[in-house]
Design a protein that fits this description.
The chain is of the alpha+beta class and 224 residues long. The protein has a domain of 63 residues: SH3 type barrels (Roll), CATH 2.30.30.40. Helix content is 25%, strand content 33%. A hairpin with a 3-residue loop joins strand 12 and strand 13. The chain is flat, with a radius of gyration of 30 Å. The protein starts with 9 loop residues before the first helix and ends with a strand.
């Protein structure tokens, strides 16, 4: 009697299946790595590289810091608090009105001390203001006084700068005076973003990491 041939394909099929399963974890790892790299590159492109990714911790500290991370030009930082259009007045005259935000730009007009101006834009470095009244052009913020938002009646000069707290418990107050309510404290070495200073240079208006006012003696310029 002739016997039928017997084949055993099952073991080979099982062997191929085992090899497939053994490569799945490595494939998934490659996919995750590739996805993470692509996501990082996308963030770099969308949010201007160093302006956001160099300070990733700011994304975890609330809307104020998210705004700070994305809008990192000094003029933009000032505008988050000193919104536009805004009224200011000339502290010293005559103040030259120029065609652009530079001492090299042409002179268009002159303003006397006390002249009220309407500010419609800040330069990128926050050193100049563009005005629309009583003349059109650019004037130096060094010779303009502004009133802060809220109930503060002490005039300030605007301008963004990075500083650090020097005291172990540096108070951040709601108003620029020693009797002002303490909104929070900063530890020694904590970095702050300043957007204005009172005309007597005694207080600085900070917006990051905590909005409020800090005594100038409690801050120092961030080392280069």
């Amino acid at each position: 009697m002739q016997q039928a041939a017997v084949t055993t394909p099952a073991p080979r099929a099982v062997e191929r299946s085992d090899r497939t399963r053994s490569t799945e974890p490595a494939t998934q790892a490659y996919i995750w790595i590739a996805g993470a790299v692509l996501a990082a590159l996308l963030l770099w492109v969308v949010f201007d590289g160093a302006g956001l990714l160099a300070q990733p911790v700011r994304l975890l500290a609330g809307p104020q810091r998210w705004l700070m991370a994305v809008r990192h030009e000094p003029g933009d930082l000032v505008q988050t608090v000193y919104t536009l259009p805004r009224t200011a007045w000339v502290s010293e005259g005559p103040l030259l009105v120029r065609s652009g935000p530079s001492v090299e730009d042409d002179t268009l007009a002159m303003l006397e001390a006390g002249a009220v101006v309407t500010v419609v834009a800040y330069s990128r470095d926050a050193q100049w203001s563009q005005i629309s009244q009583p003349a059109e052009g650019w004037v130096s913020n060094r010779y303009l006084n502004f009133l802060p938002p809220g109930d503060v009646s002490i005039p300030v000069r605007i301008g963004a700068e990075e500083m650090i707290a020097v005291a172990t418990q540096t108070p951040v107050r709601e108003t620029p005076n020693i009797a002002g309510t303490i909104a929070g404290t900063l530890g020694a070495g904590a970095g702050v973003t300043v957007v204005a200073v009172t005309v007597d240079s005694q207080w600085r208006h900070v917006i990051d990491p905590l909005p409020g006012w800090v005594a100038s003696v409690d801050l120092q310029v961030t080392p280069e």
